[in-house]
């Protein structure tokens, strides 16, 4: 038996392109979320409320580390006529499992809080808890900071200055003045209006006392019934 040996060129096997694609990780889109407390404006751990101004218009500011981004009420942006940029339809997941759709973005929003100016990008989102919500993305820009939720203070450095913001304590509802009602009407802040009227209760004894004492019982019962 004879064997014939032949020399062949060495060939380098290239990996299958499909296998390479399978091993390539798919980048995940950042998830936008809003805490349930921020959505409803309720007080809770991790939330500090401030009163600020945008173009001399008073707004309620909520600092919430449980929310991913900064969100501004669309009606406030429309009323102040700030530049609004269109965005893709981002979905923001709320703490109760529902989702809201972003309606645009303000690239540079100038907010005055206790004599200090904050410049933040903000998504337009129809939240009910406050006019402006500063989330964890804004807190990350502060660098090292101290948030004291027991005493409602936020301390941080900005442009070489040590800044302390004092949060607002929970206040009871107060009667709105005429100029406040006008502002709420202009900014479409009124969801529903109700009229309350005090009605005094009338007992049956008061009804019988108005009738003459010598009236026939049958007639008195008839008048009382109708």
Automatic annotation (TrEMBL):
Known Pfam families for this protein?
gag-asp_proteas
In which residue ranges is the amino acid composition biased (Acidic residues)?
Answer: 1-17
Region described as Disordered: 1-32
UniProt organism field: Trifolium medium
State what protein this is by name. Answer: Uncharacterized protein
| Listed InterPro entries | Peptidase_aspartic_dom_sf (IPR021109)
């Amino acid at each position: 038996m004879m064997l014939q040996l032949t020399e062949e060129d060495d060939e380098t096997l290239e990996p299958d392109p499909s296998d390479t694609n399978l091993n390539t990780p798919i980048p995940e889109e950042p998830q936008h979320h809003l805490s349930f407390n921020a959505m409803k404006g309720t007080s809770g751990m991790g939330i500090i409320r401030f009163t600020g101004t945008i173009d001399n218009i008073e707004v309620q500011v909520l600092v919430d580390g449980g929310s991913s981004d900064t969100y501004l009420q669309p009606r406030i942006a429309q009323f102040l006529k700030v530049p609004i940029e269109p965005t893709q339809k981002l979905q923001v997941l709320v703490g109760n499992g529902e989702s809201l759709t972003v309606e645009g973005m303000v690239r540079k929003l100038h907010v005055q809080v206790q004599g200090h100016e904050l410049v933040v990008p903000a998504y337009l989102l129809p939240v009910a808890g406050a006019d402006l919500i500063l989330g964890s993305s804004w807190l990350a820009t502060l660098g090292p900071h101290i948030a004291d939720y027991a005493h409602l203070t936020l301390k941080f450095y900005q442009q070489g200055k040590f800044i302390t913001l004092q949060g607002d304590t929970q206040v009871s509802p107060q009667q709105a003045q005429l100029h406040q009602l006008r502002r709420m009407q202009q900014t479409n802040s009124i969801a529903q209006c109700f009229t309350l009227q005090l009605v005094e209760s009338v007992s049956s004894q008061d009804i019988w006392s108005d009738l003459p004492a010598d009236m026939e019982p049958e007639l008195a019962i008839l008048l009382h019934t109708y």
